[in-house]
Each structure stands twice: as structure tokens, then as C-alpha cells.
Amino acid sequence: MFEKVLIANRGEIALRVHRACQEMGISTVAIHSTADENAMHVRLADESVCIGPPSAADSYLNIPAIISACEITGADAVHPGYGFLSENARFADILDEHGITFIGPSADHIRLMGDKIAAKTTVKRLGIPVVPGSDGAVTNDIEAKAIAEEIGYPVLVKAAAGGGGRGMKVARNAKELPHALSNARTEAKAAFGDDALYMEKYLGQPRHIEVQVIADSHGNVAHMGERDCSLQRRHQKVLEEAPSPALNAEARAKIGDIVARAIEGLGYLGVGTVEFLYENGEFYFIEMNTRLQVEHPVTEMITGIDLVREQIRIAAGLEMSFRQEDVTFTGHAIECRINAENARTFVPSPGTIRDFHTPGGLGVRVDSGAYGGYRIPPYYDSLIGKLIVHGRNRNECLMRLRRALNEFVVDGVDTTIPLFKDLINEPDFMNGDYHIHWLEDFLAKL
Ligand code: ADP
After folding, report:
1. Does the keyword Secreted belong to this entry (predicted)?
2. CA 142 → CA 146, 148, 160, 177, distances in Å?
3. Are residues 304 and 437 in the same domain?
């Protein structure tokens, strides 16, 4: 087992990784920018190294500085968390060249899934159903028009290197198509330095349902059920739950099995998430994330399995601690992303948190690095914590969520807590009756 793990991230996920390491008897090294000197993960880690100025490009994305921090502290492995360098194949390669273990899949699998066109072709070959669309890249407007007519409007133009909902444009008819293509191309080039595009049928009212998978180097593969992440704003997840209110045990086992078999065929290692849109009883693959996800706790709550612990075991060459038949789903879990943002306008609200009181009690988990007196720096994303609630069934979970939200105090900055308090009174949400556009429709009516 590793003796020392460097956590190449910040915020709640850095703390999450630290906690798993501590429970495994592994020392931790926190890295931080000058803006994060007083962060909780820095305070709790066994050692910390300042790796640069506030801008992420100079700190959390600064590969030479992170390698130096590993060398100085003698870390034998790096956990990348999510975001930042977590899906950067070059980072995985460089760590490997330095004899440091990247806690994640192989650089080749990261590279493959990072190219969404290649990812789609690969998983289709492995038996996973995909969204109908262009087989490969669309290179010009004439070709795009022919494909769009074949799959039928509306179509969605997407960036091969896409992420975070960027580089995605809808065309409702042939007239809108050239504009969608040129907009997506410009946005993709600016955001990812890669303007390769592909096209998909734009599904009207699907749910976003993703399957958690895990595989070790001893030939063990399992799926850990699904998460429903249909509550989104601008293609970004806001609230996630497991199990999905839309699936029954049979549908769950069926898609889980298809995904686990595909992952096995891929020779994948570690944890990963295969994302689908789900409409009229059919699954359509959209992408695979080769990392731990923000919403992983809902899976942990209903399975009792610590995903970070498993990641570390697998990276160290050990077997995962369970088999498919050991995975059972108990009760229901919901996660709310608490962002330092205005709950109506979603304008970021950095600043000093005066008072911070988290809810507690049975079935309540808060993953957060925030505390009273903490100053939220303006340089990074606005997620300041996650409230995760577990109940024996969905109704108990909802009642507990309402109670926990009422207990949560964050004074001094705006947060998204009021949005969740509104949601918990909405019949559609209470009934689990919502799709990927539901939240934006709801917000438009407020
Ligand atoms: P990103 O990597 O940028 O997050 P994804 O491919 O994972 O992009 O899609 C993000 C979200 O965009 C999905 O959860 C869904 O809301 C929407 N989306 C993606 N593809 C389609 C599609 N073909 N039809 C309708 N909505 C889609």
C-alpha cells in the first residue's frame, strides 16, 4: 500500500480524499495556491506545499510544480480528484515517467474517452447503445446537413473535446444548422483548443442516468447501480439521486450488466461513470468519465462502499474489496450541490462566510471544506459543499432533506440552499417526475 498520497485538488474533494487516506493509514500531502492557504484540506493534511499563485493555470494545473511537490515530499501516488488534471492523460504519463502512481485509469483510457467521437465508436462496438448521430466527425456544412436530414431535426452539434456543457448547440431546422456549427466550432476552439465536432439527435425530454462502474487489475468488474442527474441548469448537474425514480430493478440490472461487460472488454481499471440519456425506456450513451464524480456520495450511501478507498486499493494493485454479488442497494440518497451563488440569478457570491452550521443527525452527510470565517476565493468554481441525505425509501429521504436544509446555516454569502428549499415543495420533484429540461422550465416560471 502507498505510504503517502499527494492530493492534486482543492475544496471538498481534497478533503474527501484526505479522509479516505486517513482511514487507510496513509499520510497525505495537500497542495494549494496562495489563495487557498487557509483551506480546510491544507489544515488537515499531514503536509502541505504551496504550488503557485491563485490562477488555476499556475497552480492546480501546473504539472511541473505538482511533480516538484511530489519529489520534495516523497509522495508515492497522486489522487487527482475531479476537474483540474483528473482527465489529463499527459499528467498521468508524466507521473508514470517519474515513478509516481496516478490513482486513476491508464493514460490510454483517459485519452480514448476524452475524445468523445472515439469514445462513442468504441462503446458502440462493445455493445452499449448510443444516441443516433454522425458516425465520427462532421467536417463541413453540406455533410452536416445530409446527416441531420437522415437522423431528423432537432439535432445537437457537440464538441469532440467537450466538457462542462460547453461547445454544444441545438439546431431545430436546416436554417439554424450553419449557425449552430459555426458557434459550436468557435466555442470548442476557445475552450478546448480543438474544434472537431460531431452531431447527435437532440432528445426532447430525456433523463440523465449514469452507471457507476469499477474494475481492478485482477479481472474483477462490477457496476454499482445508477445515479439520476436530470436536474440540470445549462447542462450542469444541480441535484443527484440514487436510485433513479425512473428505473426498476430489472432495467437497472440489465443496463448495469451491459456496461460492466463493456468495461471488461475495454480492459478498464479503477472507477468510472458511463453516462446515458434515458427516454421512452431506452438508454443512449453520451459519454464516459474516467474519474471520481462530484455525485459519487449518493452511490456510497446506498451501497455502503467507499469509492475513494476502492480507487486507492486498485491503484496499489490490490483487488477491489467486494464482488458484484456483494453490491446491494439500500434505501435512497439525494445530493444537493451547495454553491456560493445567488439562488435566483446564479451569480457567484465569493466572500467571507460569517457563520457556518451544518445539519446532522441520522442519514445526513455534509462534504465541505467551508467553516465560519472561511473566505471563499473568487478564482475557482463556486461549489462550497454537498449535502447528502439517505433514507430507507425516497419519501423518507425527501422528508429528511427538507429537515436538513432547514438546519443548514451559511451566513455572509449567497448560496443555492433556497433553490433546494423551493424544489422540495414541487410536486413533480416530489414524485420523481422530471427530465433534463425540467429545472430550467421551473426556474423560468419563478
Ligand atoms: P459535457 O461533457 O459537456 O457535460 P455531455 O455529453 O455529458 O457533455 O452532456 C451534458 C448534458 O447535455 C446532458 O446531461 C444532457 O442534459 C445534454 N445533452 C447531451 N447530449 C444530448 C442529446 N443528444 N440530446 C439532448 N440533450 C443532450
Report:
1. no
2. 6, 10, 19, 10
3. yes
Q: Quick check: 164 pLDDT over 90?
A: no
Residue 7 β-bridge partners = 30, 79
Q: What is the pLDDT of residues 5-19, one digit of tens each?
A: 999 999 999 999 999
Residue 247 buriedness (CB in 10 A; 0-12 / 13-18 / 19+)? buried
Q: Is 202 in the pocket of ligand 1 (CB under 6 A)?
A: yes
pLDDT digits (tens, 9 = 90+) for 272-300: 999 999 999 999 999 999 999 999 999 99
* In a domain? residue 229: yes
Say how many Å lie between the CA of residue 431 and the centre of ligand 1.
Answer: 24
What gap in Å lies between CA 143 and CA 177, rounded to an integer?
11
ipTM for the assembly: 0.97
Is 19 one of the catalytic residues? no
Q: Is 162 in the pocket of ligand 1 (CB under 6 A)?
A: yes
Q: Check whether residue 195 and residue 220 sit in a common domain.
A: no
Burial class of residue 41, CB neighbours in 10 A (0-12, 13-18, 19+): buried
**Ligand 1 atom at minimum distance from 200 CA:** 23
Domain region containing 144: 132-201
Q: For position 28, which CATH number holds? A: 3.40.50.20
Q: Which member of 10, 291, 313, 400 is catalytic? A: 291
Q: Are residues 325 and 305 in the same domain?
A: yes
- Single pTM value for the model: 0.97
The C-alpha cell at 407 is 438546519
d(CA 133, CA 121): 11
Please, are residues 310 and 299 in contact by the beta-carbon 8 Å criterion? Answer: no
Could you tell me the three cell numbers for 20? 479516505
Strands, E, within 325-393: which ranges?
332-339, 351-352, 355-357, 364-367, 375-376, 383-391
Q: What is the DSSP string of 241-273?
A: EES-TT--HHHHHHHHHHHHHHHHHHT--EEEE
Rounded CA separation 207/444 (Å) = 19
- Three-state SS at 370: coil
Please state the domain count of the chain: 3
